[in-house]
Structure formats: C-alpha cells, structure tokens
Amino acid sequence: FAAARLLASYGTRDDAALIAAFERANAASGTRHQLARELARRVSPTLRVHDLGRTTYEVAGEEVVASGARRKALSLLLFLVTRPKQTATREQAMEVLWPDQSPSSAMNSLHQTLHFVRRDIAPWHDDGSTADYVPLQSELIFLDPELVQVDSVAFLRQADDAMSSADIGRIGPSIIRLYTGRFAPEFEYEDWAEEWRGLLHSKYLHLVHATAVYLLSSNRAAHAIDVLAHAVEIDGMAHGLREMLIRTLTDIGAVDAAGSHYRLYSTLLERDLGIRAPPIDELLSRTFIPGDEDPDT
C-alpha cells in the first residue's frame, strides 16, 4: 500500500491500471482505496468544450466535431453546460433528454449515454482507473470543474469581469473576440439550450456596446470600429450597433464603408422588422452621447 500511494502521487496515466489491479486484489482487506482514481484524475488531460459557434471538443490534442460524435451524448454534455455550476439531477436530465420514455427506460438511456460520453472523451476509458469527466454521484450528474473547461462558461465569467473593470477599453476587445458565434448552433431548436444561448448573446452585445462607448470616449475610433464590425458580423440584426458603426466610419472619413453598411442596414431593417430605414443624413445627424444609449441589450 505504501508503494501504491507513492505511485499514485508520482506515477503516469499508464500506472493507473496497475494500481487498480492491486486495489482489486486487496479488496478483501476491508479498506476502501481510491488511489487509481486519484492518479488518473491528477494526470488526465483537460477536456475543452468549444461551444461558441460550431461545437467541438478536444482532449489530449484530439478534436471531435459535433457531427462526428453521437448526438445524444453531445446533447447530454451541452445540457450540463447550460445548468448552474454545470450540474443537474438525474431526473432533470432524464426529463429533458428522454421526456417520452418511462422512468426505468430513461434511466437506462442515461447510463448508456454516459458510457458513450466517456468513450467519446477518453477512448482509453477503463472503469476504476480512468478519471471521470462527467461523474454521476448519488442523484447528481455534473462536469468535473478541475477536468473540464467550457468556452461559454469562461466567456460569461470574463465578460462580467470586464463590464465591472475600469480597464474595459484594454480587456474588452480581446474577450469580445472569444465569442465566435451563438451557443451550440447544432442544437438551435432545443428548448434546454435557449435560455443559456440568450444569456450569452445578450451579454456579448452589452459588452460590445460598453467597450465601443469607452473607446469612442477615449478618441480611439479605429479600435471601436473593429469591435463594432465584429459584432455586426456575428449578429446582422444588431441594428443599433450597426448605426454606431455607420456614424463612426463617417466621422473618420470612411464614407464608402459607411455607405455600404447603411445599404445593408436598410435592407435588413425592412426584411426583419418591416420598416424603412431613416435617411442616412438623418441617421448621421443624431447626437451620440457615449453611455446614453444601449440599443441592442
């Protein structure tokens, strides 16, 4: 046991199976040990879930695209992402993902899907000697916070930090670039994804506006244009931000670019809202007071 404890502290992933076999052979001693799992958890690679824009995840340098993964397994993984602290009860997962099945059938589906999740994440998975990225403990199923990193969770945390920072002009643009698209577009029509997707997108638009306002107030129009252009590329219906972009481009003399954006703005307003855009002269004559408007949040 002393040697096993040393190996758990200093060994590699390959040693986990050796320790697990040792623990099974000595199970009759009456002492329950988890040295193999401790070692596996310490040396296992981080799972990174990229869920902004096209959904992928990567572990140990290998990337799995959503279309290549089992859809229900990916659904379970992303459902947990949307939950507070990435944790749900078994009943919540069963009700959302298998609403039409009986409780016993849904429970069987949950356990089967968990098996596939673990195999997709870690093909080397071996019960007893592999870290569990998605543990099921008692009534709770969750993403292990020490082994799993999620882009949308990190973005929301960093966006909140930026919004409360006096240095938003410096850190805001880099955080904005982390938002490469709406949450999990492969699951656009799933009810369980809607609230999380809306929260992330509204936070993104708010951060863009606040950052652009700060940059314009600091006479850094070129940086504000970069931020605003990224936003309207991500969300063509962010009409208020496009108005800011048109005015800012005009102010620096980029009239051709401003005109191009205005024509697109007019087309989208009529298509999406059924209203005519104000003449460009009227739009440009509107007084812009930084911090006095937040049209897209």
Sheet of most strands: 4 strands, mixed
Strands, count: 7
The termini sit apart by: 59 Å
Task: Strand order, main sheet: write it out.
Answer: 3-2-1-7
Task: Please explain how this structure is put together.
With 297 residues, this protein is α+β, with helices and mostly antiparallel strands. It is 57% helix and 8% strand. It is built from 13 helices and 7 strands. The strands form 2 sheets. A 4-stranded mixed sheet has the order 3-2-1-7. A 3-stranded antiparallel sheet has the order 4-6-5. A hairpin with a 5-residue loop joins strand 1 (47-50) and strand 2. Helix 8 packs antiparallel against helix 9 (191-217) and helix 10 packs antiparallel against helix 11.
Descriptive terms for the model:
7 strands; alpha+beta; 13 helices; disordered C terminus
Question: What is this entry, summarized?
Answer:
The chain is an alpha+beta fold and 297 residues long. Helix content is 57%, strand content 8%.
Layout of helices and strands, plus pairs?
Layout: H1 2-10, H2 15-25, H3 35-43, E1 47-50, E2 56-59, E3 62-65, H4 71-82, E4 87-89, H5 90-97, H6 103-121, E5 136-137, E6 140-142, E7 148-150, H7 151-163, H8 168-176, H9 191-217, H10 221-234, H11 239-251, H12 255-273, H13 280-285
Parallel strand pairs: 1-7
Antiparallel strand pairs: 1-2, 2-3, 4-6, 5-6
Helix pairs in contact: 1-3, 2-3, 4-6, 5-6, 7-8, 7-9, 8-9, 9-10, 10-11, 11-12
